[in-house]
Amino acid sequence: MGTARRAGPPAPPLGATPGRCRRAARRGRAPAPAAPSTPASPPAPGPAFGAYLDYGPRGVARIAELSRWLGGADLRVAHTYLPGDRWSNIEGLPGFLDAWADWRKQEDDRLFVLNVPMLERNEEGVSDSEVRGLLRRGAAGEYDHHFRKLAERLVELGVPDTVVVLGWEMNGITYTHRCGPDPEAWKTYWNRIVTAMRAVPGQKFRFDFTPNRGHDAVPWTRCYPGDETVDIIGMDSYDQPRGQSFDEAVTEPYGLQQHVDFAKEHGKPISYPEWGLFRNGDNATYMRRMLAWLDEHKPLYNTLTDYCPHGVWQCDDNPRASEVYRKALFGRTDTEVPAPTDPTPKPTAPPAVPPTRPSNCSPVELGDWVEYWLGGKLCLRFDWWSRTR
């Protein structure tokens, strides 16, 4: 993000395997009509949701854990980030994407969302003048081969339909792949990357253009590279700045409403690859309003950023927002067609306070079958130095 914005997940060590919603209470269904003479088609899956849970294989394993906490909710999105430290990692570090690809291929309706940096040294504070030169080199085609390698790797892994969040938060100042130093070169470079990746046989990628909410360093509309190379128009939306109301987040220039309107004008679906709490702490009102916004505008997918200070499951700092999120998504499958006028009672709500584990205790991943016979997770105190899962 831009100035004074939230910190991203910690960068993985070099050479290591890296690790980085909507108001949805399931409604009852109207009384069933008489059986048709021919079988009805199954309902199409609704908008997909999930959460960012970790960079690497632990992030994949935690999808099932989060689903259990949400009463068996169907999390259909897995979301991770390629490290932007060096080109070899941007090409897809061997072994890093395997677990994500395996998860995606288990069900046809799942989405794998991958944030892809456009330049190496992506979080090293590179100056505007150097960024300008790098963008122009990219626009001239100097880096095309790195993205062809990434596309080939994704196709080989059997995930040719990956949603690629390319050059995210380009309207801020955090990343080397920011747009501000030279918007025209940035757009040309984006188009070259998309063209290079689409040229790989077997690909079915969708490219997601995702700025920060609001103006930030440069209006994100100045960075839009064109309808031919953008498939989804996303937005990263955190509860900030301090003191801002949700209504202000909707109506501010380049805010939530302008995002929805811009996507509609360009005939594109919307997404929210990153959203969550931030500057206003445990803000249950923000959580409730954001879930309602997602429910109303039906993005293709959304993924909550679930680490402190943004999250609600892996972060103990936000109990009120956590309760709102859990109640809203408890038991959600996204395969049922809701009937707003149906008076049938909703499923029993989850406990008001999420269950907690003993302090200084870390759950051990033993698999669903072993945990079934144990009656829960085995918890060991070898993780005394860490407060997160």
TrEMBL record:
The keyword Hydrolase applies. Residues 33-46, 340-357 have a biased composition (Pro residues). The keyword Hydrolase applies. Residues 1-46, 332-359 are annotated as: Disordered. Gene3D superfamilies: Glycosidases (3.20.20.80). Pfam families: Glyco_hydro_26. Keywords: Glycosidase, Hydrolase. It comes from the Bacteria. Residues 20-29 have a biased composition (Basic residues). The active site is at E169 (proton donor), E274 (nucleophile). GO terms for molecular function: hydrolase activity, hydrolyzing O-glycosyl compounds. Residues 30-334 form the GH26 domain. Belongs to the glycosyl hydrolase 26 family. This is GH26 domain-containing protein. It comes from Streptomyces apricus.
